[in-house]
Amino acid sequence: MHEADPTSQSNYLQIATKHITFDWTVDFDNKVITGTATHELIAKFDEVSEVIFDTSYLHIEGVKVDGDTIQDFRLGPKHEVMGSALHVPLPRTLSAGSSILVAITYRTTANGTALQFLEKEQTQGKTFPFLFSQCQPIYARDLIPVQDTPSVKLTYSASVRSVLPVLLSARRISPPSDGPAHGGKIIGKDEVVYTYDQPTPIPSYLLAIAAGNFQYRPFQVPDGKQWKSGVWSEPELMDSSFWEFSRDTTRFLAAAENLVGPYRFGVYDLLVLPASFPYGGMENPCLTFVTPTLLAGDRSLTGVVIHELTHSWFGNGVTHAHASHFWLNEGWTTYVERVLLQIIHSPAHRGLSYVIGRKGLLDALAFFEDRPKYQKLVIDFDNGENPDSAYSRVPYDKGANFLLHIERTLGGLEVFLPYVKDYIATYMGHSITTETWKNHLYAYFQKNGSEQQIKALNSINWDAWLHQSGLHLPVEMEYDLTLANPANVLADRWYESRHTTDISKLDFKGSDLDSLDANQRAVFLERLESYDEPLPAGHLFHFDKLYSFSKTLSTELRFRFYILVLKSQAAMHFVQGAATWVIGADDTGVIKGRMKFCRPVFRAMFKVNPDLAISTFRQAQTQFHPIAQSLIAQDLGLDLAGLRARG
């Protein structure tokens, strides 16, 4: 018997969905999706007499089983996190291996987390509204009645009616992507039926939809590749989006194939979303969602694309069984992303990525000091506990460092990479636990390795890495510092100057940064922030006069600058600027909806000026995604339900 998913009320261990057929209509006027989800389910045991689906904030209008309407379906009591279980009795008892069709007619509601309907004013073009979904980790149940667990992998097909172009995490059948936008019909007026098919089984959290005024532009695909790739965005962002991603996306994907095997999804497109999107990217198959903060104008942030496309193997291919094993997705993806950086660029680029990740990891471990179980790689979630409460850099960077430690313990990449390929080949299409992964690791080296390598594996402190809390990694890791050193040297010079009271005697100039790229500048700021003693206020005023970080258009650098100064004696001088920047009330005009930026900035503001942090959030609360709203409110100690009621 497999471990039961602590976040699902469904009976997926007895009977599970194999395929879903969606018949949807996107209603922008009422901000809902209406339609039918028809599940083809396969019984896993004999004597299955009902199907239980996860739902949350859905209005269930009717249920049919094998084409016949039934009246005695019921919704269970609402659980704060898991929602309401939909119980569908079956007219015949199923035996193991037999199938049945369950069609559920329903509509979404405004209270769900999965969908964000944006007003036209919140888009780049400010002409048409916009819709996008975010189903990870447990919000697919807000979009459809489904067995909402990564342990169930399903295929799907869909017909979606909309007056605006529609994209799904699947291969488009019609109208063609490279044809006229909206099938040549009038965008915003004429209803068009979009059809899609996803023939590769995926977990429910990868079900995704977006609808809005966007255009498509294809990338050039390397010779011999059977997949297609391109970018979708609002027309106003198409030129900058195409320039940012066209050079690197397909060569990154080709490099990943060379490392871990064929890409299985046929299409790898990017969709540049509006600024309220709460993540850097979301690895929806066939259609990676990305934040517009990646449009840096210098291609310095395209590494996020490496991360998201690597999920095609780690997460979308080999999937964690449930939230307790989330690190299998993100730790593996981050580790392989950094191997690809070494292959595409150099070992120094791999090292620099670990240096940047280490700062975020240490911050996350410190943030969870009073909730130490979230410092672990394998988290023992209570039944019904929201996994979003644990969301941080821990599964990404603690996981990646753990795998790096295993790689080094076994003898390096030349030993470890053949195992990685075997791991993917063995579990592609499956959902697994940490124990399953570990058992396979040992089995591989028992068969293909040496007695010395088994001894090396036995030398690893598995419990410390997987199951223990702490503010530091179990092993002190060393990285290639070739690219980090110039940034560290400049930061050290600033720190050593902190006792100089006459600012005119400081030996710094604006050209100090000319030899540092964007990632090295990020390391520079993070190094300064890591010192026990902050720079004096006068130094920081001079610092900003020289380098203009408070005016940079790079979100990555401006965010780090605010984190640096809001921990110093200059905090009161900069806190208002941070407040206007994070909600887009400044010259950028763009809310910083990505949680990597908005959550730490709000937390830092709260320590300086709690009233300003709270009032700023209240002012712009509805501009943030529901997931971000909930977590920012939690960070600020606010009752989000009360805020919504007052709003």
Keywords:
single chain; 647 residues; alpha+beta; 8-stranded mixed beta sheet; 5-stranded mixed beta sheet; 19 helices; 22 strands; 36% helix
Any chance you could write out the topology, listing elements then pairs?
Elements: E1 15-27, E2 32-43, E3 48-55, E4 58-65, E5 68-70, E6 74-75, E7 84-94, E8 99-108, E9 115-118, E10 130-133, E11 153-162, E12 166-168, E13 171-174, E14 192-203, E15 209-211, E16 215-218, E17 228-233, H1 238-246, H2 249-260, E18 267-272, E19 281-282, E20 287-290, H3 303-310, E21 319-320, H4 327-344, H5 347-367, H6 394-410, H7 413-427, E22 431-432, H8 434-448, H9 451-458, H10 462-467, H11 484-496, H12 518-530, H13 537-547, H14 555-565, H15 571-582, H16 595-608, H17 610-620, H18 626-635, H19 640-646
Parallel strand pairs: 1-11, 17-18, 18-20, 21-22
Antiparallel strand pairs: 1-2, 2-8, 3-7, 4-5, 4-8, 6-7, 9-10, 10-15, 11-14, 12-15, 13-14, 16-17, 19-20
Helix pairs in contact: 2-3, 3-4, 4-5, 4-6, 5-6, 5-12, 11-12, 12-14, 14-16, 15-16, 16-17, 16-18
Please, could you describe this protein's structure?
The protein has 647 residues and is of the alpha+beta class. It has 19 helices and 22 strands. The strands form five sheets. An eight-stranded mixed beta sheet has the order 5-4-8-2-1-11-14-13, with no helix packed on it. Helix 4 (327-344) packs antiparallel against helix 5 (347-367), helix 12 runs parallel beside helix 14 (555-565) and helix 15 runs antiparallel to helix 16. The longest helix has 21 residues, at 347-367. It is globular, with a radius of gyration of 25 Å. 47% of the residues are buried.
